[in-house]
Automatic annotation (TrEMBL):
Classification via InterPro entries: G-protein_beta_1-5 (IPR016346), WD40/YVTN_repeat-like_dom_sf (IPR015943), WD40_G-protein_beta-like (IPR001632), WD40_PAC1 (IPR020472), WD40_repeat_CS (IPR019775), WD40_repeat_dom_sf (IPR036322), WD40_rpt (IPR001680)
RNA-binding keyword on record: no
Family classification: Belongs to the WD repeat G protein beta family.
Gene Ontology cellular component terms for the protein in this record: Cul4-RING E3 ubiquitin ligase complex; endoplasmic reticulum; heterotrimeric G-protein complex
Species this chain originates from: Pisum sativum (Garden pea)
Protein's name in the database: G protein beta subunit
Length: 377
């Protein structure tokens, strides 16, 4: 068979796949008679409201000299680790704003960081294609630097995201630009399972984000530049359990809903979406025009502890607080006093839901305290 014939067959096959994908999309839409917001409105639900003192920026964490790319809270709520383009990880006391560790990284181009469940170690990864583990209890060297305690090597592309398996300091999952996710045994430094890659049900472009199910740590979701999110079961690494379509751009952020039955996504197409892992259906789209009338990309998302609020950071500095039931923006942290002066790159909710931390290209992190809505959120 000639090259020209192969190209013709490839074009025909691509067209067939696209037609089938569009028919599947239309079929899904025909089965969805309403969305969450439509049902909530029919039940007379009122949106969450915030007073002028219900959410306040209570602390600004200053210390990085480069853009902040990632952050994570400890499970006991009072410490935060952040990763910056300045080539350092900083561990902060969120209550006092003090730095407890400033870790110089072997590769300055860091993209992700995570605390272990016990808070005894931190992990990070970036353009060196390695996930580095630091034991915070280890002694420093003569220059005051903390040495790497374990390097997890095996990805063929940059490490975009990492997260420890809940309740285990010995296992974590990474997502990579090589289109795969990997479950690692930190004790041995070896890969336990690889998700995607040569398997047809894997992502077809860079993996940008992962989120492990807090209710069932065997399940995790991944978001990718192929505009899809995929659900994986660590017990069945050979194929994705389900693939979720709907976005029209890179899926930059994924996050499980508190009950573990749903997850949210944030995308380059400017929208956030909510999916159900049991049915595979898209439950809601969160989309609103920004004040500058330009489409801002979603960089990071988080849910409040009850799931009633979805917080989304955008490239234009907005940070919308969505009412997940009514798909309505109830507050823009970017418009409040002491807000960030640049792109929001990362955000995360404390374990008890009392505070939100945001990171930005302005080199700072900010902690937002939730006041009178603790029971609602």
């Amino acid at each position: 068979m000639s090259v020209a014939e192969l190209k013709e067959r490839h074009i025909a096959a691509t067209e067939t796949v696209n037609n089938l994908r569009e028919r599947l999309k239309q079929r899904r839409l025909s089965l969805l008679d309403t969305d969450i917001a439509g049902y909530a409105r029919s039940q007379g639900r009122a949106p969450v409201t915030f007073g002028p003192t219900d959410i306040l920026c209570c602390r600004t964490l200053q210390g990085h000299t480069g853009k902040v790319y990632s952050l994570d809270w400890t499970s006991e709520k009072n410490r935060i680790v952040s990763a910056s383009q300045d080539g350092r990880l900083i561990v902060w006391n969120a209550l006092t704003s003090q730095k407890t560790h400033a870790i110089k990284l072997p590769c300055a181009w860091v993209m992700t960081c995570a605390f272990s469940p016990t808070g005894q170690s931190v992990a990070c990864g970036g353009l060196d294609s390695v996930c580095s583990i630091f034991n915070l209890n280890s002694p420093t060297d003569r220059d005051g630097n903390l040495n790497v305690s374990r390097m997890l090597s095996g990805h063929k592309g940059y490490v975009s995201s990492c997260q420890y398996v809940p309740g285990e300091d010995t296992h974590l999952i990474t997502g990579s630009g090589d289109q795969t996710c990997v479950l690692w045994d930190i004790t041995t430094g070896l890969r336990t399972s690889v998700f995607g890659g040569e398997f047809q049900s894997g992502h077809t472009a860079d993996v940008l984000s992962i989120s492990i199910n807090g209710s069932n740590s065997k399940l995790f979701v991944s978001g990718s530049c192929d505009a899809t999110a995929r659900l994986w079961d660590t017990r069945v690494a050979s194929r994705a359990v389900r693939t979720f379509h709907g976005h029209e751009g890179d899926v930059n952020s994924v996050k499980f809903f508190p009950d573990g039955n749903r997850f949210g996504t944030g995308s380059e197409d400017g929208t956030c979406r909510l999916f159900d892992i049991r049915t595979g259906h898209q439950l809601q789209v969160y989309n609103q025009q920004h004040q500058d009338n330009e489409m801002a990309h979603v960089t990071s998302i988080a849910f409040s502890i009850s799931g009633r609020l979805l917080i989304a950071g955008y490239t234009n500095g907005d940070c919308y607080v969505w009412d997940t039931l009514l798909a309505k923006v109830v507050l823009n942290l970017g418009s409040l006093q002491n807000s960030h002066e640049g792109r929001i790159t990362c955000l995360g909710m404390s374990a008890d839901g009392s505070a939100l931390c945001t990171g930005s290209w302005d080199t700072n992190l900010k902690i937002w305290a939730f006041g009178g809505h603790r029971k609602v959120i």
